[in-house]
Amino acid sequence: MDYFNYQGDTLFAEQVALSEIAANYGTPTYVYSKATIERHYHAFADAAAQHPHSLVCYAVKANSNLAVLNILARLGSGFDLVSAGELRRVIAAGGDPAKVVFSGVGKTAEEMHFALQLGIKCFNVESVSELHRLQEVAKSLNKKAPVSLRVNPDIDAKTHPYISTGLKANKFGIDILLAAEIYRDAKQLSHIELVGVDCHIGSQLTETQPFLDALEKLLALITQLRADGIALKHIDIGGGLGVTYDQEQPPQPSDYIKKVVERLKDYPELELIMEPGRAITANAGVLLTKVEFLKPGQEKHFAIVDAAMNDLIRPALYSAWMNIVPVVIQQNLTPQTYDVVGPVCETGDFLGKDRLLAIREGDLLAVRSAGAYGFTMSSNYNSRPRAAEIMVDGARSHLIRAREQWQDLWRGEQLLAD
Ligand SMILES: Cc1ncc(COP(=O)(O)O)c(C=O)c1O
Ligand SMILES: N[C@@H](CCCC[NH3+])C(=O)O
């Protein structure tokens, strides 16, 4: 079931017409569906609940708007994060630090200090140097830091090379072949408590097998560690489940998690942690944009819209294909093929290429599946204020982030004194 549906000729988010949102809040604007976020969270959490202990830790980087985090926190979600900024967002949104896992290859001492004081669930440690820094910070606070090593299982996630993270050639995690020895050394550290093991092999995976292969490697490590007297409490399988942008047919979250739970039957004492990001928010959002100009050309026709690569960088960065649909279907227009491009001064500033659309200047378009890695990756390039964000809940729409004002563009900047 899709909460973004046409009613008559008009595209709705739940029970609100996107044309009404554009009229009320302007464009470009991100629009999210609360019911979709909730449904996707439940798909993971309910399937995982078949295991004795489990926790969904939503990956904050996918969409970190406070309202999004608050919806998830109310459902009982934990959070996977990669910076003190994300941790502060989680706290501001009412999230529970005891359900936070902290990933990332470059945690600063200040970030460790802040997270330790808050009492987070664990640090997903990605290198030996990080482990030693954490030991020092924990010692200075007279606390024990809960640690899960993020291992790199050297598995091909079969996704875009820029978003593959579990290969030896990637910067992430600790080589799984070295992990047992590092756990043994870590056990000697006075202010480290070994609580788990973690991996995250990439994003937008459309097959279950690489996840299951990684799971096997993690379980083998857990067994080996047990023999060494190190009993871990949890296994964190990361995020990475793909969504449908075009023709992809990724596994349903419930089917994927069911397989994991099945495999963990012999490990009832292990808590199962998941870190889904995209699978929860991508298809819960669209980017609403207006056609400014139609520009015919010899080789190409361009639809120049008011959203650009600074608002949604995925097409420019990964050549990602995202569906672009009219908000109001124009029955009487002949469709034409357009490159849908923004006003930014870069050739790479496109949202979609060669799209068959029946549109006029002034019409609205919706870029689908933009709820994850959309707003969070946006910037002010070309001094463009960042878009507004709206949450639809049934028949109501709520402004959850105001469009940036002109002054926001130079906040914190100073002229030189004479
Ligand atoms: C450590 C970690 N966990 C979870 C995620 C979430 O990934 P996804 O949005 O693909 O589920 C990411 C991003 O890829 C990540 O780096
Ligand atoms: N930002 C990427 C995914 C990377 C995930 C971060 N580890 C995307 O839009 O597809």
UniProtKB/TrEMBL annotation:
State if Lyase is listed as a keyword: yes
The Enzyme Commission number assigned here is: 4.1.1.20
Q: Name one GO molecular function term.
A: diaminopimelate decarboxylase activity
| Domain Orn/DAP/Arg decarboxylase 2 C-terminal intervals | 30-371
Residue numbers binding substrate: R278, R314, Y318, E346, Y373
Q: State the CDD domains in the record.
A: PLPDE_III_DapDC
Residues that bind pyridoxal 5'-phosphate, according to the entry? G240, E275, P276, G277, R278, Y373
Which UniProt keywords are listed?
A: Amino-acid biosynthesis, Decarboxylase, Lyase, Lysine biosynthesis, Pyridoxal phosphate
Q: Which SUPFAM superfamilies has this protein been placed in?
A: Alanine racemase C-terminal domain-like, PLP-binding barrel
Q: Which Pfam families did the record assign?
A: Orn_Arg_deC_N, Orn_DAP_Arg_deC
HAMAP family found in the cross-reference section: LysA
Query: What is known about what this protein does?
Result: Specifically catalyzes the decarboxylation of meso-diaminopimelate (meso-DAP) to L-lysine.
Which family is this protein grouped under?
Belongs to the Orn/Lys/Arg decarboxylase class-II family. LysA subfamily.
Question: Protein name, please?
Answer: Diaminopimelate decarboxylase
